[in-house]
Amino acid sequence: MKKLLFIAFLILSANSFSQHYKIIYLKSSNGKLMEGQDPIWVFTNANSTLLTTENIKNNKADFPYEETIINRRNNSFYQTAILNTDNVIATEDTVSLAKQTFEYLNETKKILGYTCKKAKTIVNSNTIEFWYTEDLKVKAAPTILGQNLGLVLEMVRNGNFTITATKVEKTKNFPKLLGTNQSYDLLTYKDLLWKSRFTTISVFDNQIINFSGESKSNDTILRFANGTIAVRKIKIPEIKTGSQVFVDVTEQSNGDAYDRTGSLFIIPTDKAKSFLDGLKNGVNTLPIYTNGNGKQYQGVVSTPDYNPVVELMRFYTPFGVKQYNTLQMKDKIWAENVLYRQDVSELRSLLSNQEVWIGINIGNYDKGGHKVSANITIHDEEESKVNPLKTIPLFCTNNIMEMAGQEYGTMFNNDKGLEVNFTLDKPMKNCRLRYITTGHGGWENGDEFVPKKNTIFLDSKEVFGFTPWRQDCGSYRLSNPASGNFPNGLSSSDYSRANWCPGTVTNPVYIDLGNLEAATHSIQIKIPQGLPEGTSFSSWNVSGVLIGE
Questions:
Q1: DSSP helix/strand/coil, 279
Q2: pLDDT in the model for residue 57
Q3: Which of 117, 182, 304, 377 is least crowded, fewest Cβ atoms below 10 Å from its Cβ?
Q4: Beta strand 20-29 pairing with 40-44
Q5: Cα separation of 151 and 216, whole Å?
Q6: Rounded CA gap, 270 and 393, in Å?
Q7: DSSP string, 295-345
Q8: Please, which residues bridge with residue 314 across strands?
Q9: For residue 172, what pLDDT is reported?
């Protein structure tokens, strides 16, 4: 680190007797200057070049920001990044500049009075053209690319994005450089810089989700339903309206070979009762829903004093990824894990600036079970005109407490199906139902393998109907090493299913409900659930959240 700093300052001090230039660049797109941009400032002489911006040098730049120094004596560059007030990192690259190649073209034009030649290169399928001059006997460019051509006064990417010099002037010396306190290899530096651009909240880290009486809670993580559920309280910072919020889950088998239903969920605690009470005191302490079919369904619909869980993500484990990668097949290289990642920005109001109980479950009966990690990432937008949204939990029939006796979602075997009433104290505009649905019943005639129409009613009027079905399951074969293979040449993981595949996320469907008046309303879900066959039965995991302005 000290060597890196010494070299950087040595470069600048050695240039004290050469001519210095300052070049100012602006960006434009499709011929129009980009609004609110931070002008690029480049300082250069015969021996070195500094890439920075106007806001950095005027102490107005937002974190993170970086400067680059090119040492022309050894054709290397040094990058320094300020991640925050306490963290400054740096790296050195001695090979990238030498690897750049260009096609030199027989075209010239004048820019700011200087005669410029043309060169071009292709990077990641992008064609980039450079207009550079040799009149000033120095080299520089507004980016790392093109530093050895000459003094680049214009760069054009794909014919529509341009960085153009607006001013070239002599200057007495280079400005003061950014300091640094840690140096890294280039790949680590880029990774740290990228991660500093958003907030990452670790929820679970290599958490075991299994079925065992030996599964115990600790000071941070509570375990329920014989270890198939893990819950912890997380402090979420304020999330600005319009920000993008993502969740991700990484899963691998720790013993279980089967495709299982998984859920990353929020436990609302804003009413007298919560799902957490059921986890602690037993499933039958939750509010009971009945629809006349003789069964009792625990904790699945909202009531005046209870809100069901809100699923951030419904996911499905593949057949034994990682644990069963020893089951070899020719030309199959199995995945090491499965990454599920989903945008949940519409649920911002349930997360922002509060402590939240977040849980994860995978229904399984295996002592080894599964190993999971989960994160929430928050990505601020520079400018947002999105209106704040209100979120109201309505229902969730995904029996997350399956291994603690919670009834399966079999309430769709009569004409009533699932019905929930909710009351709005104030009108809501542009309402949508965030609806997740998957069918289950794992035999030939079970609803897992039979398309069934879902019909949604608002205040007794049909507002939406569709048949949830996934036909792309074969795309995920390499995540399913333990999937059974059949005489017809198909794997079990290839078969189409009722809106899910082994190793994938089930995306929500957003159903427009229009503007809703302050009143009591009803949502009803009807699905023609298949009949039982012996001990086999069908069920549907549906969850719904009302979102509106």
A1: helix
A2: 92
A3: 304
A4: antiparallel
A5: 65
A6: 11
A7: --EES-B-BTTB---EEEEEEE--SSTTTTTTS--TT----S-EEEEEE-G
A8: 263, 506
A9: 86
Number of Cβ within 10 Å of residue 44's Cβ equals 28
- The candidate with the shortest Cα–Cα distance to 248, out of 320, 327, 340, is 340
Q: Which residues have a Cβ under 8 Å from the Cβ of 65 and sit 6 or more positions away?
A: 53, 55, 56, 81, 82
Phi, psi (5° rounding) for residue 156?
Answer: -125, 120
Q: What is the pLDDT of residue 15?
A: 47
What's the pLDDT score for residue 384? 67
For the beta carbon of residue 235, count every other beta carbon within 10 angstroms: 9
Look up residue 193 and give its two tokens: 């810089």
Q: What is the mean pLDDT of each run of 10 residues along the chain (549 residues)?
A: 46 60 97 94 95 93 93 93 90 93 96 97 97 96 97 97 97 77 90 96 98 95 98 96 96 98 98 97 97 97 98 98 95 96 97 97 98 97 79 98 97 97 96 98 93 98 98 98 95 97 98 97 98 95 97
User: In the sheet where 310-316 sits, what is the strand order?
Assistant: 222-224, 229-236, 354-362, 261-267, 310-316, 505-506
**Rounded to whole angstroms, how far apart are CA atoms 378 and 210?**
29
Please, are residues 116 and 131 in contact by the beta-carbon 8 Å criterion? yes
66: helix, coil or strand?
A: strand
